[in-house]
Design goal:
- This protein has about 400 residues and is α/β, with parallel strands linked by helices.
- It is about 30% helix and about 20% strand.
- A five-stranded mixed beta sheet has the order 1-3-2-5-6.
- Helix 7 links the parallel strand 8 and strand 9.
- Helix 3 packs across helix 5 and helix 7 packs across helix 9.
- The protein is globular, with a radius of gyration of 24 Å.
Length: about 400
């Protein structure tokens, strides 16, 4: 019998819900067990699939199982078409290759799939029948609002990112592509659509999709690719809907922390949009090549007072830039210096090279020291410990796998 890895427990059992497939009678759930032989076919043919990645020995997985089954019964009654909603599960001990493919780091993990594509946001809600059933209902709500006059476009909420499609007809390949994209990015953008005569003036060269960014004065952007090409359309929309610099909140902190890469964070007063715009501009100018190796974030100074105090700052000191490596926090010397070409980039590179950590413990590297400084000896210093690591998945909800190689 395989022994469990180091456990951080409660959430694992909760997320055992995966893919609702067939359930013939209330009270007798039929949860599809996925393996290498059937996983592609089942997921690719499911409109919405909730997949539970679990381990038999995990007590949180065991706790979730009856909840998951009852929720699947409710879903089957409300969505009898077995291709609409699927509940499934993966035994990660028996199918470690599947667990590795989907980067499972805790049990139970509940992943949502749409037409075979895994959604970035997994289910992290309450582990109750009602909450899970409500979550599935929300996933089946049409994310696209139909507009009946172009005046409605002018009243769109400019505090949100809006993508608007203008189509000749609803039953078209172009619109079906738009629907798929909207379903995937429903949490990141507002999707609107106009059809027929209402959209005619905007279809001067055929069906048309535009992006309205946040802010009243920011110009619209037009999609110039083929609307029959899902990959191109999705890539364009994702680039617009998921900003390079994202806001971190207590609600999404666990999700961001679990991505496993350090944070470069701007702490700013919420009303200070000028500092945020300057930070966004410099990240795009200096650090676009570092995307994927570090998360670019901004945080409300008032809400995140504790991390600021941890680095001996207060909201009165904002704007402040810092790196959280999940071991330590490092403060960027002066916010006003971010416009110096390459300076913000060097701060990030010094993290990757270990220089930030080394200099906290031993003072400036000899090549950076002033004449005679090397005789002074080591400077005793300890960088503040990570604050945002505390937002990682709770050990009272999940069995955490400390070593991914265990899968």
């Amino acid at each position: 019998m395989k022994l469990p890895p180091i456990v951080s427990s409660l959430d694992v059992g909760f997320f055992t819900i995966l893919l609702v497939t067939g359930l013939s009678t209330p009270g007798q759930a039929e949860i599809t067990s996925l393996d290498t032989g059937n996983i592609e076919d089942i997921l690719n043919n499911a409109g919405v699939a909730m997949v539970n990645f679990y381990a038999d020995w995990c007590r949180f997985s065991q706790m979730l199982q009856p909840i998951f089954e009852e929720a699947s019964n409710i879903a089957r009654e409300e969505f009898p078409d077995v291709t609409q909603v699927v509940f499934a599960r993966v035994d990660c001990d028996q199918h470690s290759d599947i667990a590795q493919r989907y980067r499972i780091s805790k049990y139970p993990t509940l992943k949502l799939f749409r037409n075979g594509m895994m959604m970035k946001r997994e289910y992290r809600g309450q582990r109750s029948v009602t909450a899970i059933a409500d979550f599935i209902r929300q996933q089946k709500v049409d994310p696209i609002k139909e507009i009946h006059s172009l005046e409605e476009v002018n009243t769109a909420d400019r505090d949100r990112r809006n993508i608007i499609g203008y189509f000749d007809q609803k039953d078209s390949e172009n619109y079906h592509t738009f629907e798929k994209v909207a379903n995937i990015l429903r949490d990141d953008c507002v999707f609107l659509a106009a059809f027929g005569d209402v959209s005619q003036t905007e279809r001067f060269s055929g069906d048309n999709v535009i992006y309205k960014p946040m802010g009243e004065t920011v110009p619209d952007m037009v999609y110039l690719g083929s609307l029959t090409n899902f990959d191109l359309t999705y890539a364009w929309a994702q680039d617009k809907c998921v900003p390079l610099v994202r806001e971190i909140t207590f609600e999404n902190g666990e999700e961001l922390t679990e991505e496993g890469i350090p944070f470069l964070i701007l702490f700013h007063v919420k009303e200070d949009t000028a500092s945020l715009e300057k930070f966004q501009h410099e990240v795009a100018r200096q650090l676009i090549s570092e995307k994927g190796s570090i998360n670019f974030l901004h945080a409300d100074c008032e809400k995140f007072r504790h991390p600021l105090l941890h680095i001996q700052k207060t909201p009165a000191d904002c704007p402040v830039i810092a790196i959280d490596s999940f071991r330590h926090m490092y403060v960027y010397p002066e916010f006003r210096d971010i416009e110096i070409p390459g300076k913000l980039r060097q701060f990030v590179l010094d993290l990757h090279s270990g220089k930030l950590h080394r200099e906290f413990h031993h003072g400036p590297d000899p090549t950076d020291s002033t004449p005679g400084q090397e005789e002074i000896g080591e400077v005793a210093s300890n960088p503040p410990e990570s604050s945002f690591q505390k937002l990682a998945p709770s050990e009272t909800r999940y069995t955490l796998l400390r070593d991914r190689d265990e899968l």
